[in-house]
């Protein structure tokens, strides 16, 4: 029953935001781009509880700490608790986590334009926090710098992220997949990028 309601909401959201499809499906960054250089002053916020945020003095994580000297699979999505993100996108990475590790991937990261507390609650709810690292891009600065931001106000979401995935080695993009519309799930899933590594 809950999955039926989620699929109805997903269908409604898809019909509402299909108008964004013509907007753009490509980011300013591309294969070969350096993520750290593309967004030099940007930090992300690791998913955590409010108390963990307070005890860390609301620390953020610079991109160099996430990508330098590492092999990372990162995927961005419109938002926590949304239909396609919860039912398809995150699970496509969670079910493949052992295969990613088997290919030498140091970390699999999910990022969305949400605060780190929402990302933490969502990661716990969908039982993916142990497999995937979740980061908030609370002000959208990471996605804006990469030209992966989109206005989803028509769906009452406001500024958000396109749905995308990338394979990044030492900060350099080796593979980049961006969906034509945030409601689509064709090229940014875990199965797809696993076959591209």
Automatic annotation (TrEMBL):
Question: Where can this protein be found?
Answer: Mitochondrion matrix
Pfam families linked: Redoxin (PF08534)
Top enzyme class: oxidoreductase
Q: Quote a single Gene Ontology cellular component term.
A: mitochondrial matrix
| GO MF, one annotated term | peroxidase activity
Q: What is the catalytic activity of this protein?
A: [glutaredoxin]-dithiol + a hydroperoxide = [glutaredoxin]-disulfide + an alcohol + H2O
Q: Where in the numbering of this chain does the Thioredoxin domain appear?
A: 33-187
Keyword set, alphabetical order: Antioxidant, Mitochondrion, Oxidoreductase, Peroxidase, Redox-active center, Transit peptide
**Active site annotated at which positions?**
85
What EC identifiers does the entry list? 1.11.1.25
Q: Which Gene3D superfamilies match?
A: Glutaredoxin (3.40.30.10)
Family recorded in the similarity comment: Belongs to the peroxiredoxin family. Prx5 subfamily.
- Quaternary structure, from the entry: Monomer.
* UniProt function note: Thiol-specific peroxidase that catalyzes the reduction of hydrogen peroxide and organic hydroperoxides to water and alcohols, respectively. Plays a role in cell protection against oxidative stress by detoxifying peroxides. Reduces preferentially hydrogen peroxide rather than alkyl peroxides. May be involved in mitochondrial redox homeostasis.
This protein is called Glutaredoxin-dependent peroxiredoxin
């Amino acid at each position: 029953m809950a999955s039926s309601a989620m699929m109805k909401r997903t269908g409604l959201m898809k019909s509402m935001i299909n108008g964004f499809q013509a907007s753009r499906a490509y980011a300013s960054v591309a294969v070969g781009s350096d993520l750290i250089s593309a967004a030099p002053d940007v930090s992300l916020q690791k998913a955590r509880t409010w108390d963990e945020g307070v005890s860390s003095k609301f620390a953020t994580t610079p991109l160099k700490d996430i990508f330098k000297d590492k092999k990372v699979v990162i995927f961005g999505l419109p938002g926590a608790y949304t239909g396609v993100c919860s039912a398809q996108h995150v699970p496509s990475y969670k079910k493949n986590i052992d295969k990613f590790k088997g290919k030498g991937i140091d970390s699999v990261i999910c990022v969305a334009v949400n605060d780190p507390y929402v990302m933490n609650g969502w990661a716990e709810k969908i039982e993916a926090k142990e497999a995937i690292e979740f980061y908030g891009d609370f002000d959208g600065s990471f996605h804006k710098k990469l030209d992966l931001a989109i206005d989803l106000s028509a769906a009452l979401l406001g500024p958000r992220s396109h749905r995308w995935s990338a394979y990044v080695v030492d900060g350099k993009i080796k593979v980049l997949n961006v969906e034509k519309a945030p409601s689509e799930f064709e090229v940014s899933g875990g199965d797809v990028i696993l076959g591209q590594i």
